[in-house]
Amino acid sequence: MSIGQAFLGLLESQPRHGYDLKRAYDERFGSDRPLAYGQVYSTLSRLLKHGLVTVDGVEPGEGPDRKRYAITPAGVADVEQWLRQPEKPEPYLQNTLYTKVVLALLTGRPAAELLDTQRAEHLRLMRELTRRKTTGDLADQLICDHALFHLEADLRWLELTAARLDDLARRVRP
User: Fold this and answer.
1) Which segments does the entry list as coiled coil (predicted)?
2) Average pLDDT, the chain
């Protein structure tokens, strides 16, 4: 996700200080990966440089002065364009797990064990996400559903690959 675009969207409702913007972002989008303050201010600096935000006011604080940022008309147009643009689906045609399976086969290691271990890890994470989903708010439920659907697709791939392992081994081994 583009942090800059998310900041612009959050700034559309009202001007905010960097700290408030970080808090709003983390509450809505970053519960698992909160932003670092350095990332917040470097992103704001870039948005300022490109004319997408402006400093709306400066207030004295206990430390450095606190700047309040507001979105510009160019920033509104930028986030509007970003929202209309569809995301490119990621087909994952070359992923790490496939590479591990092929390398295990090439080196004589037990690829079936690798698949079993991965399946167990996927199931563990699915149980954790299901627990989180039952206690979370609507945003948490939607985020967990998204992750669970991807994990389910991965599990189907793991099963299919396990069923075709002998054939794959014949094709990749010299």
Assistant:
1) none
2) 90
63 and 123 belong to one structural domain: no
Each residue of 24-56: pLDDT tens digit?
998 888 767 889 989 999 999 999 999 999 999
What six digits make up the tokens of 148? 């669970």
Buried b (16+ CB within 10 A) or exposed e, 3-31: bbbbbbbbbeeebbbbeebbbbbeeebbe
Residue 163 inside a domain? The answer is yes
* Residue 30 domain flag: yes
In a domain, 9, yes or no: yes
Which token pair is 97? 């797990």
Parts of the chain with a pLDDT under 70: 1, 31, 92-94
Q: Is residue 159 part of a domain?
A: yes
